[in-house]
Amino acid sequence: MAKFNSYLLGKVTKSVGNVTMCYMNKQNIARAKIFSRKDNPTPEVLTQRAKMKALIELSRWLLPVVQKGFRGIGSGTTSNAFVSLNMGCVSVDEDYAVTVDYARMLVAAGIRNTPKVSVTYDSDASKYAFVQEAEEAEEGYAAGDDLVYAVLYETEVQRARLVALRVRGEGGSTSYALPENWSAENVKAYCFAMKKGGKVCSNSVSLTVG
């Protein structure tokens, strides 16, 4: 900041290049504009940024699942809800490399009861078999016509499949073929339930593939 007097210019209030001039306390004052400000983030900030970046990218690959599984959660978008609720399943090392604990990751969230589903994989037929146990209704938390879904996510090709299973009140088995170009070794499996009408879900459950 610099003070100056100018009989020719009088009271100056304008900008020239990177200098802004104004008139204060009966004096002309020139100030340099501040175009940018570089911060000096702490390790905690960098860790948080790495987690956020990884989860935002993951939410994009899982978008069709996230849009269904996080509907009605929080006041923001379904993707924001996914990121917020999964911060705890992401770890960052000293080089800010990210590791996702897929067993803890939620692909759906809500107060509905989680469904009872198990899954096996037949490597000869390249098919998954989802076996579902029939459940009774519970007022406010479960209904016989609740929709039940399985989710398959291939971590290397970064693609997901949403598999419609039977309604909650019906037991049985549903098969699903391994998608083309997928490797079974990289597939993570989940399931969740949704109230008929699609407004309330259960938390998802990570499935161990047998």
- E-strand count: 13
CATH architecture term of the largest domain: Sandwich
CATH topology of the largest domain: Immunoglobulin-like
| N-to-C span | 71 Å
**How many helical elements?**
3
Pfam families: DUF6266
Description:
InterPro entries: DUF6266. The protein is of the alpha+beta class and about 210 residues long. The chain folds into two domains: about 1-30, no CATH class; about 45-205, Immunoglobulin-like, CATH 2.60.40.10. The protein has three helices and 13 strands; from the N terminus they run E-E-E-E-H-H-H-E-E-E-E-E-E-E-E-E. It has helices at about 45-60, 65-70, 80-85; strands at about 1-5, 15, 20-25, 25-30, 90, 100, 115-120, 125-130, 145-155, 160-165, 170-175, 185-195, 205. Helix 1 crosses helix 3.
